[in-house]
């Protein structure tokens, strides 16, 4: 049986954008009658959610689409937002550094991307590379969703 994908609307205040905003992400239907979906996107801006989280979504009163309400079960993955600060750095080359460390990523635009840190990965190695590149002036970053496991490493 093929997986059924749905677009889920997230509404939140973005510290990055400093305004109320919305973001849509793909999710796989787990049990539509119960409103359960597994997030299949890396959030660009939405805080406190990560890829593979099990979420509850329902049709919004003001929207005609599924709207995120809360996380049912966290995946243990973490989401890190990365802004390229060095105008000579190429976004895709910096993304490759994290890909080689075991993180997948999604590029929003030249100069901004997000990485998904899988729950099984040791975050200390990722954090060391983030700190190294930040100290070198290549990037700045924010941990928009840091899992309990990664926060304790």
Give the overall average pLDDT. 92
Q: Determine the fraction of residues in helical runs and give it as a percent range.
A: 10-25%
How far do the termini sit from each other? 39 Å
Nearest-angstrom radius of gyration? 16 Å
Instruction: Please tally the helical runs, counting DSSP H or I stretches of 4 or more residues.
Output: 3
Q: Which consecutive residue ranges, at least 5 long each, have pLDDT under 50?
A: none
How many individual domains?
A: 2
Name the structural class: alpha+beta
Q: Give the strand order, joined by hyphens, for the main sheet.
A: 1-2-3-4-5
Range of strand content? 35-45%
What do we call the CATH topology of the largest domain?
Answer: Alpha-Beta Plaits
Looking at the structure, what is the overall shape? globular
Q: Which CATH top level class of the largest domain fits?
A: Alpha Beta
Order of helices and strands: EEEEEEHEEHEH
């Amino acid at each position: 049986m093929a997986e059924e994908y749905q677009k889920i609307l997230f509404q939140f205040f973005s510290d990055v954008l400093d305004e109320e905003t919305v973001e849509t992400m793909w999710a796989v239907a787990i049990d539509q009658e119960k409103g359960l979906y597994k997030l299949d996107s890396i959030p660009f801006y939405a805080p406190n959610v990560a890829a593979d989280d099990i979420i509850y979504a329902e049709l919004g009163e003001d929207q005609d689409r599924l709207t995120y309400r809360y996380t049912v079960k966290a995946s243990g993955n973490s989401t890190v937002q990365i802004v390229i600060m060095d105008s000579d750095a190429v976004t895709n080359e910096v993304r490759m550094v994290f890909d080689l460390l075991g993180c997948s990523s999604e590029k929003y635009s030249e100069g901004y991307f997000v990485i998904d840190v899988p729950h099984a990965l040791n975050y200390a190695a990722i954090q060391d590379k983030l700190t190294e590149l930040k100290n070198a002036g290549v990037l700045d970053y924010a941990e928009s969703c840091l899992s309990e496991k990664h926060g304790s490493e």
